[in-house]
Write a structure and sequence with these properties.
The chain has about 50 residues and is an all-alpha fold. Helix content is about 90%, strand content about 0%. Helix 1 packs antiparallel against helix 2. The longest helix has 24 residues. The chain starts with a helix and ends with a helix. The mean pLDDT is about 85.
């Protein structure tokens, strides 16, 4: 279940980057960046706990 949430963050980041690129809205890029940061943090934490 933990990995589903982690990869959902990654998918959200990709979608937000795409929307930001198409519309030129900086807010979507920032939201995508935050989602990607959450993805990497969750990914490394799950490796350490195993």
């Amino acid at each position: 279940m933990r990995h589903i949430i982690t990869f959902s963050c990654f998918a959200a980041a990709i979608v937000l980057y795409a929307v930001g690129g198409a519309s030129g809205a900086i807010a979507f890029f920032v939201a995508g960046l935050l989602a990607e940061i959450v993805f990497w943090i969750r990914l490394f934490r799950s490796e350490e706990s195993e």
